Every structure is written in structure tokens, then in C-alpha cells.
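TL;DR need C-alpha cells for one chain.
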Amino acid sequence: MIELVIYALLAAFIFSRLYNSLGRSASLNLKKLTGILDVSQSKEDVVENIEDYIYSNDKSSIETTYEQILQKNKEFSISNFIEGSSIAFELIIKYFNQGNLPQLKSLLDKDLYNSFVDKIKHRKETHESIIVSIVSQKILEIKLVKNVIFIAVYFLSEQINFVKNNEGNITSGSMSTINKVEDVWQFKKNINSSDLTWLLVSINYKKASTDKNLTTNDN
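>> reply
TL;DR here they are.
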């Protein structure tokens, strides 16, 4: 019996080391993602310095909206949202490359999902994007419309981009060149909903006064 316990502990330790070394995105599933996008904190009050996550010329407006959100849901967490949105960024790109509509449906707003369906059904070539790393990630805008939160997130990522034809041959791009790619994605969630998932509303969302020089000023 003691030997079985020792083997079980050893197996758990090895799995933990493998998980950490291989990275999160390789083994994440939607259940894990939903748990992170829950953005809930522990029962203890945690004061977050949201300035660490914001890049905007109008920080005061974002901070005011953040306070309004906390009045409706005191467990809302910017740091957990940031972690979850980075995972969603990688998963959505991966599932789009695969044409995996069932997985995409649970992560996208209805209108954006329909757009993805149309693109996947009619594409003659496959645009592949492999995420090497997310270099930088900042919140550009937070809006609260009634009980729905909209958060626009800037991503600077390193990607390998190429295009394949139906025969699987690369027609443009390269599998050995790493490109820096900028995106602004907008997510939404009803603050009172029992559904924990945030949905992606738009890609390359245009903020009214989008801040410049993110690549040079961001860490």
C-alpha cells in the first residue's frame, strides 16, 4: 500500500514537471480556459493595480469603469482576465487554422462565429498562424453597457505565418520565419450571467482613439 502511494506521488511530480516544461497551450482544453476566464478571485478582497495592465491615454475613464464593474461584481479580476484572454488568443487561432467550428462556437460571439464559418467553408487556401509567443498584452479600453462588459485587448505576438493550398504545399510565407504581429481583440461578458465564458466579439477592433507606439513603449 505504501509503495502504491509513493508511485502515485512520483507520477504526479513527473506530470507536473512535464506540464510546466511543455507549456500551457499544448494541453489546455476549454474547461480549463473557462475556469480561467471566470475571472473570480478568492473570497478575500484583493486590490489590483490595474495600471499594470492598461495602455491608454484615458486611464481615468478605464479606472472609473473598472470601479463600476466591481460594484456589480466584486470578484471581477483584471489579472485573471488577462491570463484567460491570452489563452483564448492562442486557442482561437489554432481552431481557425484547423477549421474546428465546434470548438470555435463556444468562444465566439454569434456574428463573429458566422463570419468564421463563411471564411472556413469558402477558403481555397489555408492561412496557418503558429503562435511562438505573446510578447506584449495590454488593455486599451473597457466599456460597461448596462450589464455587459466589453474589453479591447492589444496583442503583440511572434508568429510563424504561411499559406497552404489544397495539396498541402506552401504557396506563400515561411515555416522558418518569425513575424511580429499586432492585433486588437474585443471580448464581452454579461457580468450577471452564470455562464463563465467570455466571448470574442471582434478582431482588429478599432478603438475611437487608438493609442500609437505600443510596440516601442510597451514592456
